[in-house]
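Researcher: Predict the fold of Ribosomal RNA-processing protein 43.
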Amino acid sequence: MTTNITPSLSFPPATYQKVDPNSYLLRHLSPTSTSTSTSTSNSGTHAPTRPSGRSADEFRPPTIHTSSLSHAHGSAVVRTGDTAVVCGVRGEILTLRLGEKKVLRSGIDSGVGSGVDGSGALKSYPLIVPNLELNTGCAAAYHPGPPSDWAQAMTQRIRSLLVDVVCPVEVNALRIVEDGLGEGDGEGDGREEEKEVKAYWVLYIDTVMISLDGNAFDAAWAAIIAALNDTKLPVARWDPDLDRVVCDPVQTRSLGITRFAFASSFGIFTAPPGEEAEAETWILADLDDFEEGVCEERILVVLTDERTIAKLEKGGGQVGSSGVGTALAGVKHLKRCTKMAGERWKIWNDLIKGKGKEKE
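Model: Structure tokens for Ribosomal RNA-processing protein 43 follow.
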């Protein structure tokens, strides 16, 4: 009696990744998991790592190079894995409309969020103008043409952080005032010194994705903070004789960045239905392009120091058969993400301030 043995289906890991990406990632994260429908040629037991070789909570090592663009007042190139971003900051002068007058009084104005002309100027006059673009060939899915919805959404998220949440640039650093207005006239009579605002610096922040392999927001935001910290604007003054702003051709000044906020993104991955795994959910730090396609929920943590949260954002989840959405991440997951974000914040902070080993 002859027995016919059906040969098992076998194909390379790259093919398995495209055919069933969820099971492919699960077999890396949970070596004891079993797949009843497909087997691969390298189905042996291995350590629980992601396809990239990183552990679940491991970030890609970053590198930063500043002052790389000669035509910008400040610039930075940031690379994390195969994601690379270049950011340039260019300052231009915005004069007030004819007849418009803004007067600052010492002791009242203190920069962001207060004073006669506080942070509202950042919104009244668009003093910070970010823009993000995708370079041709940065990703296989990107096609040249008008700005995509994704790029416009990223630009809006960046602007919201810059203007509404973190505010790394104080309005004081962007004002060009007429010194001496009322100076000396009020001595001894209790009147405060006044300065009239004549113009503002407008910062155009252009960010270009050179190469995109996931987690674009973290890299783009770090490049923006590094470029702003590198920015040096010409010393500007108001010339009453010429009735215009005059810039010093040699002397410059920095923006005086004091809020070094950094973003850390995470993804929540769940085992596919019918699969046996060691855990139900995994928190993956710093997703690459493949992992972004299989993780159903995202978490973004923005810290201004190792413990202070400036923004916590969570989106996604699963939709059940009844059409009701279910969140995958709970409080314990958010706490863990915040802790990992604090460790990541320290790495970014040391790199930008020149203390890290990876800075080029």
